[in-house]
Amino acid sequence: MSSSQMRTPAQRVHVGAIAATLRTLEIDGPVLVLGSRRSIEAVDWGGLESRLAVTYFDRSEPHNPQRVVDEAIQLARAEAPRTIVAVGSASAIDLGKAVRTELDAQTVAIPSTLGGAEMSRGYGVLQPTHAKAVGSTRHVYADVCYDPDLLASLPAATLGASGLNAWAHAIEARYARREHWLGKAAAEYAGRRLPALLLEASRLRDAALHRRLFEAAHLAGFALNTCGMALHHATCHALGGLTRIPHGVLNAMVL
Fold first, then answer.
1. Domains within the chain, CATH numbers bracketed
2. Torsion 187-236-211-55 (CA) sign
3. Cβ–Cβ contacts within 10 Å for residue 196, how many?
4. What angle do CA 232, 86, 163 make, to 5 degrees?
5. Tens digits of residue pLDDT in 105-143
6. Contact partners, residue 61, CB within 8 Å, separation at least 6
7. Which residues pair with 14 in a beta bridge?
8. Are 163 and 114 in contact (CB under 8 A)?
9. Residues 6+ apart with CB under 8 A from 189
């Protein structure tokens, strides 16, 4: 009988209003917040700013070109933050991982889509001719904060595309060769739940539904991180690097 090892990342997961969560997080300053201007402005940072020095980098882009990553790293080196907070889409969450490569800091992810990057150790950087994928356990976020209200501001098409990305995570993790009991169970649960939840979201959007969507996307991201990705996501990342089509939309097309 062959032997195997199944590792489960250690993370703290918080669900609720982000302003209240930020007041209770045990984090040190200075703090560097990364994201797009839209995603940063969607969060009330008053509680954090009242007790810690906070610097903002609001130039995250889809697929994050190397230029954006270099600018964020340059700011991080100048500010020497003890905590990195990434807020927004999977691209913003991945930008936090790229900056984490360059310095030792606590990490907090605040996703506003269903992309699941907050659960994975890998991230991508857009090069002139391709998307470069890197990452290790060092890049897994220590704290993940889900606020269902952040999904409320997403247009239906964006929510649907990122939801199909999450569904692709579940499908791919289910047939990936790496063995992980919890990962396979999470993939099966999320894979069964997401189609019905996304169909429901096309008719009605409320906080309870957004919470269930985050739950399913979280489990799908966990499944992909523990079981590994395969042909589908490799294809989507390659096409994204060439075409700059948003990752969620590409997943919907390739599925």
1. 12-152 (3.40.50.1970), 156-254 (1.20.1090.10)
2. positive
3. 11
4. 35
5. 999 999 999 999 999 877 666 665 445 666 566 678 999
6. 36, 68, 91
7. 145
8. yes
9. 216, 219
Q: What is the CA radius of gyration of the chain?
A: 17
First to last CA, the chain: 35
- Name the pairing type of β-strands 106-111 and 83-88: parallel
Contact 244, 194 (CB under 8 A): no
104, two tokens: 């030792």
- The three-class DSSP label of residue 84 is strand
Which tokens in the block code for residue 157?
A: 């098409």
Q: Is the pLDDT of residue 193 over 70?
A: yes
CA distance 63 to 66: 9
Query: Which two structure tokens, joined as six digits, stand for 191?
Result: 């894979």
Task: State the residue for tokens 């994050």.
Answer: 64
Which tokens sit at 23?
Answer: 């007041």
Contact residues for 30 (Cβ-Cβ < 8 A; gap 6+): 52, 53, 54, 55, 79, 80, 81, 82, 83
